[in-house]
Specification:
Layout (H helix, E strand, L loop, with lengths): L5 H15 L4 H13 L3 E6 L5 H9 L16 E5 L4 E6 L4 E5 L15 E8 L2 H5 L1 E4 L8 H13 L13 E6 L5 H9 L7 E5 L15 H15 L7 E3 L2 H8 L5 H8 L6 H9 L9 H18 L1 H4 L3 H12 L1 H34 L3 H13 L4 H15 L4 H11 L3 H4 L8 H18 L6 H15 L13
Parallel strand pairs: 1-6, 1-7, 2-5, 7-8, 8-9
Antiparallel strand pairs: 2-6, 3-4, 3-5
Helix pairs in contact: 1-2, 1-15, 3-8, 8-11, 8-13, 14-15, 14-16, 16-17, 16-20, 17-20, 19-20
This protein binds guanosine-5'-triphosphate and magnesium ion.
Pfam families: MMR_HSR1
GO molecular function, one term: GTP binding
Organism: Gordonia aquimaris
């Protein structure tokens, strides 16, 4: 398989070389190759009941993840494209237990939840061909067991116990109120950077005073998301306001003509009378109780209150309105941007780490080590080293100017941007600025504060002296 993206192509060539060393290295190359050629893996994390599973369903386009007001998700589940619909329950001991499960069934668990690392779930889905989605139990100090499952799969499992790790390339962090200190602390332990971690302000349809309040909750949430993005800029790239509920309803085919007709019948009813109707035990002549419950479950208060006019135009119109209001389009765009640009660098980092690991344990260590070094030196993978330095600096000194400088280099799409100048700056100005930055770095290298900073300075000096033109990777085949 060939790929136009230079990062993919370079790694692919490297893995072919690894396979050519012979013996069991062909099998290793194959197993590492699956990391390279599978769709980006996005993990959804956040507080208990923040709406994670609902959002996962919306993104998959099918109601596969259990969502409920009372029941909590209790296993980490990896949703990926594949036929037939099936699952494998992976124990914390690394053993896999295959189970059969229909497309709309819950996965039967052959182990007690504390013994489960995660569940691999396959189902045929076009959406999952582009993106593997990982649902996690909510973070909460009240449900220690579930919380542990998420932490184990996302943090502890990461480099040490590969069998128990979910290996995500990007993360979506969901919150419906200001994140707490312990949540921010959890995020800082995840192996992600603000470049591949996206914030979602969930339940936007009930934000603030909610649907019946004085302000439109969606507008209010959008404003708040801008503030949160500024506040959390050391953690997430952006904050997108979302109504997962409206997105789920409009993206999973749950909404029928019957629902639209029922809602359309309430058009023109004054708000107070509408509230009374939904609260009353004896309003069956207006709408039967079960229909009212269904409508609230599908649309939420906001959708019921504001979707009535549109509903009179039929289910397709109501569905389009829900999609538009839900904010899911904005989230998909942000996800695409972060997975195409930064998840691939993150993935390249994981592949090089696998090679490093292999070089410690394998008899052909010399050959593997020199292959890894050769790959790290390849121009297409120059940014992987910058990313690794950025990750280390985020852990040791997130406020340092070097950390900022690394981020500038990573996010730039032009040579001018890399040295912090506007993209259209003239070449002489770019050269002069690179020289100035080199001088500063050489000064700093005389008195650095940490090993991470030492390494970062070496990388930055290399970046400014032998710049390769930044490329915008194309998305993996889907
Ligand atoms: N109004 C409204 N309700 C939502 C939204 N998203 C989820 N809910 C409701 O909130 C409840 C919990 O949703 P889930 O998706 O199960 O939340 P979760 O984060 O997966 O919960 P845990 O897995 O238990 O941590 C359900 O009753 C959902 O219908 C939303 O955007 N708006
Ligand atoms: Mg859940």
């Amino acid at each position: 398989m060939t790929h136009p993206d230079p990062v993919h192509a370079t790694l692919d060539r490297g893995l072919h070389q690894l396979a050519a060393f012979g013996g069991d290295l062909a099998a290793h190359a194959n197993s590492i190759g699956t990391i390279l050629w599978s769709p980006p893996r996005v993990v959804v994390v956040g507080r208990l009941k923040a709406g994670k599973s609902t959002l996962v369903n919306a993104l998959i386009g099918a109601p596969v993840a259990e969502t409920a007001a009372l029941e909590a998700t209790n296993t980490v589940t990896v949703y990926q494209d594949g036929s037939p619909s099936r699952a494998e329950v992976v124990g914390v001991d690394g053993r896999r237990h295959p189970v059969t499960v229909g497309p709309h069934q819950q996965v039967p668990l052959p182990l007690a939840t504390p013994d489960i690392a995660y569940v691999d779930r396959w189902l045929p889905s076009a959406a999952l061909r582009r993106l593997t989605l990982i649902d996690t139990p909510g973070l909460s100090t009240l449900t220690v067991a579930n919380d542990t499952a998420t932490r184990r799969a996302t943090i502890d499992g990461f480099e040490q116990t590969r069998s128990a790790s979910i290996d995500a390339d990007a993360a979506v962090f969901l919150f419906d109120a200001a994140p707490r200190i312990d949540e921010i602390e959890f995020l800082s332990q995840l192996p992600f950077t603000p470049l591949n971690m996206l914030g979602v302000l969930s339940r936007a349809d009930s934000f603030g005073e909610g649907a019946l309040g004085r302000r439109d909750p969606l507008g209010h949430a959008a404003e708040h998301a801008v503030r949160m993005a500024r506040q959390l800029s050391a953690t997430v790239s952006t904050v997108v306001p979302i109504s997962g509920l409206m997105a789920q309803t409009s993206h999973t085919g749950m909404l029928t003509e019957h629902h639209a007709a029922a809602l359309g019948r309430l058009r023109g009813m004054p708000t107070l009378e509408l509230i009374r109707t939904f609260d009353a035990d004896d309003a069956d002549e207006v709408l039967p109780l079960e229909v009212r419950i269904q409508l609230l479950g599908l649309l939420g208060e906001y959708g019921v209150l504001n979707g009535r006019e549109i509903a009179a135009g039929g289910a397709a119109a109501l569905n389009a309105w829900l999609t538009d209001r839900s904010g899911i389009g904005g989230l998909m765009r942000a996800l695409d941007a972060s997975t195409t640009r930064f998840a691939i660098l993150h993935r390249a980092h994981r592949i090089l780490a696998r090679l490093d690991q292999l070089s410690f344990t394998h008899p052909a260590r010399e050959q593997i080590r020199s292959l890894a070094a050769q790959l790290r030196a390849a121009p297409a993978l120059q940014m992987v080293t910058v990313l690794e330095d950025y990750q280390r600096m985020l852990r040791t000194d997130p406020q340092a100017s070097i950390t900022d400088e690394l981020r500038t280099v990573l996010t730039a799409t032009t040579l001018a941007g890399r040295v912090g100048l506007p993209d259209d700056a003239p070449p002489q100005a770019v050269t002069a600025e690179a020289a100035r930055r080199l001088g500063m770095l050489q000064q700093r290298s005389l008195a650095t504060g940490s090993a991470a900073e030492d390494a970062a300075i070496v990388t930055l000096i290399r970046t400014y002296t032998a710049p390769t033109v930044p490329t915008t990777p194309t998305p993996p085949p889907g």
